[in-house]
Amino acid sequence: MTKSTARLLISCPDAKGIIAGVAAFIAQYEGNIVEADQHVDPEHGDFFMRVEIELDGFRLNPGNFAGAWGPFAERFAMRWSVEWSNITKRVGIFVSKQSHCLNDLLWRWQGGELDAEIPLVISNHRDCEAIVRNCGIEFQHVPVTPENKAEQEARQIELLEAAKVDVIVLARYMQVLTPEFVAQYPNRIINIHHSFLPAFAGRRPYHAAYERGVKIIGATSHYVTDRLDDGPIIAQATLAVDHRDAIDDLIRKGRDLERMVLARAVRLHVQDKILVSRNKTVVFD
Amino acid sequence: MTKSTARLLISCPDAKGIIAGVAAFIAQYEGNIVEADQHVDPEHGDFFMRVEIELDGFRLNPGNFAGAWGPFAERFAMRWSVEWSNITKRVGIFVSKQSHCLNDLLWRWQGGELDAEIPLVISNHRDCEAIVRNCGIEFQHVPVTPENKAEQEARQIELLEAAKVDVIVLARYMQVLTPEFVAQYPNRIINIHHSFLPAFAGRRPYHAAYERGVKIIGATSHYVTDRLDDGPIIAQATLAVDHRDAIDDLIRKGRDLERMVLARAVRLHVQDKILVSRNKTVVFD
Amino acid sequence: MTKSTARLLISCPDAKGIIAGVAAFIAQYEGNIVEADQHVDPEHGDFFMRVEIELDGFRLNPGNFAGAWGPFAERFAMRWSVEWSNITKRVGIFVSKQSHCLNDLLWRWQGGELDAEIPLVISNHRDCEAIVRNCGIEFQHVPVTPENKAEQEARQIELLEAAKVDVIVLARYMQVLTPEFVAQYPNRIINIHHSFLPAFAGRRPYHAAYERGVKIIGATSHYVTDRLDDGPIIAQATLAVDHRDAIDDLIRKGRDLERMVLARAVRLHVQDKILVSRNKTVVFD
Amino acid sequence: MTKSTARLLISCPDAKGIIAGVAAFIAQYEGNIVEADQHVDPEHGDFFMRVEIELDGFRLNPGNFAGAWGPFAERFAMRWSVEWSNITKRVGIFVSKQSHCLNDLLWRWQGGELDAEIPLVISNHRDCEAIVRNCGIEFQHVPVTPENKAEQEARQIELLEAAKVDVIVLARYMQVLTPEFVAQYPNRIINIHHSFLPAFAGRRPYHAAYERGVKIIGATSHYVTDRLDDGPIIAQATLAVDHRDAIDDLIRKGRDLERMVLARAVRLHVQDKILVSRNKTVVFD
Q1: B93 and B77, same domain (yes or no)
Q2: Mean pLDDT of D2-22
């Protein structure tokens, strides 16, 4: 029912006439703009834009877009990418023992809410194997130790490539990925951290939150970079707690936050609504 | 520091090429678009757009804009308006006895947060007179009874016109305005209702909420129309309550909601971020 | 790990010395109070109390409690009940076609989060049959038409009794129960309504919310009474939406609210934290 | 209208029979308990209780309470205090240049919402002098430099004692108090920090939040201890922001959070609803 679109994402130094130029370019190829968002970061003079163009009638396609667009983009020194909504994104999920985020993503996927395919789940444990296989999804058990991490990451990349995965979701995956691995998927690995970052980065955030006596807990979804829990934040949410909440209650309540926030981040990513710049995100939602 | 801009608000039937056309028009007059938002209501095929253009360098101004833009607008059957950010909006406030919303608006205005002038406060009581006069603002006492309502509304309109008021804010004004009065200020009278509309429309909503035993209370800011508490909603907010909250607690907690929601609605209006269509608002924030 | 407790729920006219009397009674039988909450409704002079007593060392049990407590309770004209945490509550779920609330409850139950057993799911459709059976839970298909409603409700009650169900959860069950059925389970049928009640009671609340142009949607869990969507509210939650949200978006976002709110209500019920009085709830959480 | 009460706050090691003992003690002196809350920290075995007793009919008063209660309290090794609601708390406010939190407290105080007296405002600047004097409140200008801090704090304490101040509220007071000063008012100095602690402790939290690209900002009210921004947290609140919010927007939106959170903390304190233990608060609300 929803019409297929091309989604054009642009960042460049701000300049006069960019929007008019982009709109004229699209009109020239008979595209109909169904959504257009832009933002200027006044501090750095960065310009960001997201344009969604109906494919129906548009004379550009994956084959000829770059050729036509390239010279125009160069004039404004644009970093850009284009995504085609009729080419469904392929999500690979990494999980450890805890299943709530995985389960939630699978449930949304089954309900047609996720707008993506899930061809592969990789885990360093076998706890979630049955859930995954019951959904008809490939499950790969890749246990990781400090000794075999390098070769296991090579194995993971092999599996991801075989499954043509576009974006990796760490659904409470408790292993730290190496910088080498991360470099393969820039702004394409989404993590959920079970705290309101930058508070309580690192291990056992609910224990730390309990210890500090906070009155609100949070969850944060972000792109993974070399620096642990420090990548560009995509989505966050918080929830009130009080002195009656023991650590187990924080963990229980937090699970709901984590599920919501991760699902929101994945949805934004597969709909090509996120631009990254200077370790921050611009989310056109 | 913020640069002056023209804010162009457009509604029309959706059609191919509107955005490109608008952008080209603005480029033709050497305008720089600093913000552009659009929205299509897929149900009715309505197109909405808000464009903000830097005045610096723009060859159109309040004197020549309509002449240049009119023919283009006609082509797309646009309803449109243009506002100039260097012409500060003038807000007239109506209040009865309760001062919290008035106070809050005055406080924001004094702090430079409101982006508007407040030349006039009209009240059917004298309770808020001192607060208003202390701010150096004209206060007019216009008591209203069922018998004198027509003539008092005439008096109010006279005062509003003398003070060159652009938009009226009912900051807990407890009189119902006549359709004749409302017709003078279409989508230019902002009310705050102390419930989550459409729940608990009418009188004494906190009492009704208490009686019903709701676990959340709310506040709603909307444009005033002929139908009581039924105009286009601009902003809403809610707050958790529980069985320990007596009616007085709901009233107390609700005051904070009302202040926030009304301030938000007024701010959106004076920044020309609201379009109204089919008794609903499109808020480009 | 959590110690077993007796949960004593009391409502009566307020009077001097109730708390002291209750505490003395429990001390007399060597009970250790691990939690005690009370509330006085000052409007009606109603007193409410919830006391949780460790079973370890307590000289009263399901066999002798009523005999000992009865005379004391009578002195204060108490309505009271006592629940024993080591007797796990049995939840029967009713569902129609939409599975999200059912799924969520099953997921929490499997994760040990629900503190209850789920021996039976009844549905007027077969859509959720596989999900239920995969969890090893009895699924009964009881299709309902206007003609056969009476006999099918008799069938439902038979099944509920056979499964020793204590509380019924309507997890988006789209049939209205008859007053006769409801009378069998006073304050023991929990419904989820997909709006912020009392706004948008009845059918298709998301459509109504969209039509009205609200800026916040909600979900409400309540006990079922004879009057549709009018029973005592247990829990509510809300979520911001805007003009970009089509009806489908409201439905999608609302699903998350519904899941959360229903799960919260069921949890409160099975932990015996809810008292009902005058069509309102006192929730001791 | 509200009846006067004694508010008894207790912390001690958990033990059998405390609640019954307390209730019996109060009954012995013909007190009527109108509210009773308790909490056990299962990790440390700490017991906390707050009991509110109607003064009407109660045979204990500020003169004879300690004598009667002392021996009982000793038996359970209680730390305890008793507050009398008919002895209104006296709040001293410290402020620097920014007036929003001060203003908000004054506004609530004038509206009868605060349940306290405000006899004194101390500031290291003169910006807020007029606001304070207009309310008929004593304003003292006590400028502080690194050199004169010790003597100026001595002066402040003198003023606070002369005004019989019970609790100090730092309403965006930008000076760090010395440990010597803090030691004079243990758990009686309430600060508002403009971030979601422990994130962004220290200076310029909105700038830090902007830099990090968080999607939610917060405010935290806490008791002041020797360690900067690390005292027991009383109340927190958060608010969604996005990439369009410049630092000035965070500051503007944050002001509303700060006002709400500080007012809430002050209200809880003056109603004797907060117990402090192990650098955390138990808030009986």
Answers
A1: no
A2: 92
CA distance D266 to D221: 9
Q: Which of B104, B106, B242 to mutate to test binding with chain D, by most D CBs within 10 Å of its CB?
A: B104
Listing DSSP states for D189-204 in one string gives: EEEEESSSTTTT-SS-
- Give the tokens for residue B14: 């959706």
Domain enclosing residue B54, as ranges: 5-84
Residue B180: count other Cβ atoms within 10 Å of its Cβ.
12
pLDDT value at D68 more than 70:
yes
What value does the mean pLDDT take over residues D124-150? 96
3-class DSSP assignment, residue B17: coil
> Chains contacting D with at least 3 CB pairs below 8 Å?
A, B, C
Nearest to A260 among C100, C252, C256 (CB): C256
| Set A41, A46, A115, A229: catalytic member | A229
Q: Enumerate the residues of chain D whose CB falls inside 8 A of the CB of residue C40.
A: 34-35
- A92 closest CA partner among A208, A22, A184, A5: A184
Which residues sit opposite B49 in a β-bridge?
A: B10, B38
Domain with D14 in it: what CATH number?
A: 3.30.70.260
Quote the pLDDT of residue C17.
85
Q: What is the pLDDT of residue C42?
A: 85
**In Å, how far is D18's CA from the nearest CA of chain B?**
25
Q: pLDDT band for C48, please (50, 70, 90 cuts).
A: very high
pLDDT of A90 higher than 70: yes
Average pLDDT along chain B: 96
Q: What is the DSSP string of A140-185?
A: EE----TTTHHHHHHHHHHHHHHTT-SEEEESS--SPPPHHHHHHS
Nearest by CB to A107, from C103, C134, C260: name it.
Answer: C103
Other CB atoms within 10 A of residue D208 CB: 16
User: Domain boundary at A32, A50, A84, which?
Assistant: A84
Q: What is the mean pLDDT of residues B39-67?
A: 94
* pLDDT beyond 80 at B1: no
- Per annotation, catalytic residue among D46, D56, D226, D229: D229
pTM equals: 0.96
Give the residues across from C274 on adjacent strands. Answer: C283
Q: Give me the mean pLDDT over the D105-133 stretch.
A: 96
Please give the pLDDT value at position A119.
98
Work out how many domains chain D is built from and give that number: 2
Q: Which of B46, B69, B84 finishes a domain?
A: B84
Residues of chain D in contact with residue A213, where contact means CB-CB under 8 angstroms, are 232-233, 279-281
Smallest CA–CA distance, residue C187 to chain D, in Å, is 26
In angstroms, what separates the C-alpha of B34 from chain A's closest C-alpha?
7
Instruction: Report CB contact under 8 Å: A20, B36.
Output: no
Position A115, amino acid: D
Per-residue pLDDT tens for B226-245? 998 999 999 999 999 999 99
**Which positions of B are annotated as active-site residues?**
229
What percentage of chain A reaches a pLDDT higher than 70?
Answer: 100
Query: Residue C261: what pLDDT?
Result: 98
Tokens, residue C188: 């023991």
Helix (H, G, I), strand (E, B) or coil at D94: strand
pLDDT at A17: 85
Same domain membership, residue C228 and residue C154: yes
